[in-house]
Amino acid sequence: MELAKKPLLLLSIILVSISLSVPAKDSLPTPSLPEPVYNLLFFGSLAVFIINSYDRPSSLFQWITLLTSMISFITVPLVYARQYSCTTKSLTTTMAGSFGVKMLIWLKGCLESPKTVTTFWWSLMNWRTIKPSDKDQQRKLPKSVSLEERFISFITVWAIYVLCVEILELFPPEVPSKPYPLRVIDFIRTGKPFISLHALLYCYFYGGTLAISMSFLYELILLHAAILFRVLSMKPNTPLHALLTPSQQESLKEWLSSLLFHAKPLFNHPILSSSPIDFWKNRWHSACTESFSNLGGIFARRFRKGTRIRKMMEVVGTFFVSAVVHEYYSNAVHGKSKGEHFSFILFHALILIVWENVWGMWRHLGVGERKGHNIEDEKKGREDKGAEKKMLKQVAKILVWNLISLFTAPWFFERYIRDEYYHCMVHLVCVKDTVVSASAY
Predict the structure, then answer these.
(1) Residue 432 carries which DSSP code?
(2) Is 25 within the bounds of a domain?
């Protein structure tokens, strides 16, 4: 494809390149560690862990090395990250939080099932398990990728993303220093308004923009994966073919195929969620859900499988791990926290437990259900009525959940807005000349 003959495509590439490379004028103080030293400590700790995790640790020294490198990898951003630019601190803290969870899962696997443990590096390439039930569906999916379609998808998400971030930049609300849940308590006690309509809608919109921003980065990964997949599918006369053995080429191509064609989307229309479990398990950030659930399952071990209390503890454990990771990110990037992210996520764990129990009782009692209504009834001409009733119920659940999301969103996102963190988002035009520094509150 000759880019010179496609001016719109060429212009899109130029605009995306500019948006990714616009330099920010940092007003940050001189860091206590030069950035190259910081990066050396951070990525060096990761490298030490990877080198020592090609197989299960077999000696006390290897265990100590792994634990020390993991602690260093997690601690360095927590202590130093906020002194650097948005790009550096966002990248390193995100890696430390997500990779740190993977490290703990890998070490847990070494203790629980040492015979089946694989190299840690491979776990970084697999964040979402493809269920065996999906095998037949996989065979129906295309085995070739269209770079133009992939690029159009990337440009579309990028354009929406840039528009959303510009709106965040231009219309930020005033956010009180007092945390949102405390203001809600004051409202219950005194009747004092706890948030303006502008701020409420802005926080809800901020959540959607955050999802789009992560989708934008994911689309960038998919675009590079598609290019690599296309190269591997060509005749074996490229430098990449010369670099890899045939078996390595096949393994890499299989992994790329899994990522491009078989993996769940990172976000699956969160606004259409009909319940807390639908939102957190099926629609919001699928790459982290499995890791949080794996590590959080430790909290439910002492309870018998299949019992309600075990399921509740699995939910609490999963959300607790997520809360710790998000609070870690908040402290590393913004400075001292008041626990807004931690308490928000645990509150949503409570919402999920209450929702599932109330809805379970609703179904058990048969409230709103016509007795005797079954498949045979549908075959006798009640399909339309049953479908309409089901659709109305689904719409009602979506509206209820979105109302819950609307009124709890400030609890999580006000911290970002208060620190003007939207300046750290990658976009084409930045209103302010300086990037946000660590908050003092």
Answers:
(1) S
(2) no
For residues 221 and 216, give the distance between their C-alpha atoms in angstroms, rounded to a whole number.
9
Rounded to 5°, the CA angle 394-395-399 comes to: 120
Which tokens belong to 204? 């809800």
Structure tokens at 417: 């807005």
**Domain assignment of residue 48, given as a range:** 32-124
Nearest to 427, CA basis, from 249, 170, 115, 242? 170
- Whether 275 is in a domain gets the answer no
Name 421's Cβ contacts closer than 8 Å, sequence gap at least 6.
Answer: 333, 334, 415, 436
Cα–Cα dist 93/267, whole Å: 21
Q: pLDDT for 232-259, tens place per residue?
A: 887 777 777 778 788 888 888 888 888 8
Q: Is residue 78 part of a domain?
A: yes
Q: How far is CA 307 from CA 301, 304, 352, 360, in A?
A: 12, 6, 17, 14
Please check whether residue 32 is in contact with residue 25, taking contact to mean a CB–CB distance below 8 angstroms: no
Q: How many CB atoms lie within 10 A of CB 78?
A: 16
Count of domains forming the chain: 1
**Whole-number Cα distances in Å, 283 to 156, 217, 231:** 20, 17, 32
pLDDT tens digits for 290-317? 889 888 888 888 888 878 888 889 999 9
- Answer whether residue 81 is part of any domain: yes
d(CA 135, CA 337): 45
Residue type (1 letter), 175 = V
**Prediction pTM value:** 0.81
Chain segment 108-158, per-residue pLDDT in tens: 999 888 888 888 888 887 776 666 555 444 445 455 667 888 889 999 999
